[in-house]
Amino acid sequence: MMWTMPQLKRTQAIKRIALLTSGGDAPGMNAAVRAVVRTALERDVEAFGVEKGYSGLVHGQMALMDRASVANILHRGGTVLKTDRSEEFKRPEVRKRIAEDLRRQDIGALVVIGGDGSLTGAHLLQTETGFPVIGLPGTIDNDIFGTDDSIGFDTAVNTALEAIDRIRDTATSHERVFLVEVMGRSTGFIAASVGIAGGAEIVLMPGRDLGFEEICHTLKESERRGKKSSLIVIAEGENPNLTNQLTRSLNEHGFQARAAILGHVQRGGSPTGHDRVLASMLGSAAVDYLLAGQSDLLVGVRGDEVIAAPLAQVIGKKKEQPREHIALARLLAT
Ligand code: ADP
Q: With contact defined as beta carbons under 8 Å apart, do 218 and 334 qualify?
């Protein structure tokens, strides 16, 4: 997938920018870091990499980056800048001091790559202090409002699918029901994609759980049509025991059910081509938006375009999973 890049004219004489990765790490964050640094250098702007997200800002841990410092990171999972969660940054007086520190060092803007919490922090920094920020969606969950896609989502889906394909081999050999739990606390974007691409009979999403009777009915229907094994994909949701509870209940009702909780393996790994292209485009566009004098924005994608949306309209909002995605998984698998 390629997106159309915005055509932006430079209006700002920014000499230095800072960048950080924050919150949960996601594959492709390194590609975004590389794109921010190299685009900045190309525009004669110095780029400072902040270590460990907002913690590094609080403690003034940042270093000037050159072209070589982002060499050989495009294909690596995680984030070379490291990431963290910072309670201190949640205090307005700390954010005020940070803006003053950045200005004193002649740094004119900040790029934040992270999830909804990180973007919220970035927005507060700008609205309270006037310090220009741009946020990029970096989360495997793809739950950021205002962008169709986020850095790391495609890789996480592919990682989960690899595991599911293997599990299916076992499920078919032993005529079992396999319950596979994927990540996704508040939304089920990974679960829905994995459900469709992995051929799951049932996809369970946060807040949209099917009743137990309906699950049993679907599995029996599937058996009746001659299917030897069934796959249930479950988004982790808020209940940490859902998958194990459901597995136990199915076993008590005569099914041969087994659970596999994929957990953190979905976070790591080399980013897919899709995530590398996405992160490269967003990272580069972020610098150009800042140099065009535009900030307090999320830079993301909509349709086939790289877009920018005001952070105020993005943060704290729930991106809804289209119902037809779950219906499609079921339609194709039964
Ligand atoms: P993610 O960005 O992946 O959603 P978190 O929600 O943990 O991850 O947020 C990462 C960091 O962003 C937090 O540790 C905190 O420093 C900052 N942050 C999150 N929410 C807020 C908030 N409401 N106000 C200020 N800073 C916040």
A: yes
Active-site choice (141, 149, 275, 288): 141
The bridge status of strand 305-310 relative to strand 297-302 is: antiparallel
Cα–ligand 1 centroid distance for 164 (angstroms): 32
Residue 141 known to be catalytic = yes
- pTM for the model stands at 0.96
CA of 120 to the centre of ligand 1 (A): 7
CB 138 within 8 A of CB 160: no
What ranges in 71-177 are assigned the alpha helix state H? 92-104, 116-129, 153-174
- Tens digit of each residue's pLDDT, the chain (334 residues): 799 999 999 999 999 999 999 999 999 999 999 999 999 999 999 999 999 999 999 999 999 999 999 999 999 999 999 999 999 999 999 999 999 999 999 999 999 999 999 999 999 999 999 999 999 999 999 999 999 999 999 999 999 999 999 988 877 777 789 999 999 888 889 999 999 999 998 999 887 667 899 999 999 998 888 887 899 999 998 888 889 999 999 999 999 999 999 988 888 899 999 999 999 999 999 999 999 999 999 999 999 999 999 999 999 998 988 888 878 877 887 6
* DSSP structural state of residue 316: T
Ligand 1 center to 123 CA (angstroms): 11
Whether the CB-CB separation of 238 and 226 falls below 8 Å is answered with no
Give the max Cα distance, the chain. Answer: 71
Q: Are 130 and 95 in contact (CB under 8 A)?
A: no
Ligand 1 mutation target, pool 20, 57, 59, 85, most atoms within 8 A of CB: 85
Ligand 1: residue whose CA is nearest its atom 27:
121
Residue ranges lining ligand 1, Cβ < 6 Å: 22-24, 54, 85-86, 89-90, 114-118, 120-121, 124, 139
